[in-house]
Amino acid sequence: MAEKTYIAAIQEALDLSLEKDDSTLIFGEDVGKNGGVFRATDGLQAKYGEERVFNTPLAESGIGGLAIGLTTQNYRPIMEIQFFGFLFEVMDSIAGQMARNRFRFNNTRQMPIVVRSPYGGGTKTPEMHADNLEGLVAQVPGLRVVMPSNPADAKGLLLSAVESNDPVVFLENIHLYRSMKGEVPEGYYTTPLDQATVVREGQDITLISYGGAVPLVIKAADELAKNGIDAEVIDLRTVSPIDLDTIGKSVEKTGRVVVVQEAQRMAGISATIMAEIAERFILSLKAPIGRVAAPDTVYPFAQAENDWMVKADDVVAKAQEVINYD
Amino acid sequence: MANIIELNQKILDFDYQVQAQDDQFPMLQVLNNAGEIIDEDALSRAELADDDLINIMKRMLWSRQLDIRSTKLAKQGRFGFFAPTAGQEASQMASSYAFKDDDWLFPGYRDIPQIVAKGWPIWKAILWSRGHAKGNEYTTEDDKPVNSWFPQIIIGAQYVEAAGVALGLKKRHKDAVAYAYTGDGGTSQGDFYEGINFASAYKANAVFFVQNNGFAISTPRTLQTAAPHLAAKGWSAGLPSLVVDGNDPIAMYLAAKQARAWSVAGNGPVLIETMTDRLEPHSTAGDDPLRYRQQADIDDWWKKEPLIRMRTFLTNKGIWNETLESAYIDETNTLIDEQIKIADGVEKQKISDFLKHTLEVPGQVMQEQIAKFESEGK
User: Fold this and answer.
1) Of A149, A184, A219, which residue is a domain's last?
2) Do the Cβ atoms of A166 and B157 come within 8 Å?
3) B25-347 — its CATH code?
4) pLDDT (tens digit, 9 = 90+) per residue, B120-164?
5) Reported pTM
6) Which residue range(s) make up the domain with A150?
7) Chain B residue numbers touching A102 (CB-CB < 8 A)
8) What is the CA B168 to chain-centroid distance, rounded?
9) What is the predicted ipTM?
10) What distance in Å separates the CA atoms of residue B162 and residue B147, rounded to the nearest whole number?
């Protein structure tokens, strides 16, 4: 196994998808010669040609519509939304159209589309480039929302997403793109969708997270260990639908839970997890469920990002509060 | 120097620019209101045999009959949502006659007749109207695929999707096009422009129709845009764009046929604005057109509706008469009666099926919901 960056793992998965299946197409803004603004598609147009990897006009709804239409000709589109803050422009194509089509066509048509997009903050981007909007898409029936937290998962989950006959919103953390490296298995492999993973086992408290927040939760768990608190860390990987079995087993073991998300506190993934735990496993709980999330403001301008974003220290403090609850 | 001075003056003459836009789109017309051919050359270019002319007449007749029956049934509570089509038969049925089974149709919610013309049984159209998922299965009575999307409610969305199909057809080197319909209101949506622009940028196989029927529910065409012609919007994306008399079946067929041929040859999409009128309310849900338009205006358009002129033309040609028409209407009504019975007999929908049909592999919570509803027989 070689050590690779998060973005290199994604680029490798895209390459393997194009190699494996002629019907796979990649398109979006600047994905061709430029290789995407983050270089996720670097070299792919040169390797597979302009018929299969191509730039679009600069219009997100058009990109979404293009993907939907291409499925009628048995293509498997991988569309890129350059930044997830541009989701609002393509929300009808994603939520109003592709997500509804299997249901709408009474299960007679497939929508094998992957919507790839960078999300999350911490890189001082301009406005509308850094939002955590996973809660918006996770609420839409008919979509899968996948948010890998490390290079190996990014590759395996992306290959699974391309194989899926349902639309998958595949969200890539901007900050992790080049800051995170990890061992990535060689060749083609898939990591199952809809399955959470326990990335660190523990007995005292369950820390549940996903995507870009997972590394800081692991860091928090390391800090807690120094104080004798043995935290279990769950990485959801797919945030819609959610794997409640894995969560349930852990909650029954530890009896204490903190849910951590980069997104603002209101609604969102953590709210769903807390509600499901309360409904299913409340008798296993020894303390109220804690939550760490960003403040309920618009995503801040670049200079305020560091103050605004969730940090490992916030997770440590919340975990200690839950541990110390009588 | 003089030329540059004159040119600059012209460029800066905004009154000229407004007038120039208005002058650029003369209306294509072959069959006038009196049922007379006013352009024999265009008629011959249409290459319509007598059988084709009769087929177009029949399609328009059953479309009108479906409109009449649907409106009545809606009043009896036996139909669901229905958007009346009377007056638009040439725009819908004569244009769609130019397309083939392999072509992909992208209809708006008022474009039910074009899907039926592709082989979608009327009983499925009735189920669609009633809100039964079975109505959204696009197959013929003998289960062959019908290349149609569903009747789109978001009235620009079908344009971006049609652009995707059009690009796919081009990539697969197919001798086929995507053809999409929207209305004058649809051209105000961003997706309208994104769709024609994408298709044009890729020189993809598409024909886009804008049925300018005067009103988007109660908003008149003049409030949709200050552009003098909706077709002019096609020019902004580099498309050949034309205005056609939407109540003239011959002109509609000719325009659609030539647009299809041009696009299939790899030249890119074409935009066709059809000048027609919605003679009835927006939908059977009860809006009153007299709140937003004059009765005299409606009466005037009824005199120009497409069946009158086609009937006159075919009768004068000696290939149509009252007896034939009456027999065909009876036949159509018998068919509609049978189709209603089929629709009435379709099994009730189940919530558990909805859950099974939302994702190919349902998530854990959905599986629990499926089990719950199945145990309750729902």
Assistant:
1) A184
2) no
3) 3.40.50.970
4) 999 999 999 999 999 999 999 999 999 999 999 999 999 999 999
5) 0.96
6) 2-184
7) 357-360
8) 22
9) 0.95
10) 12
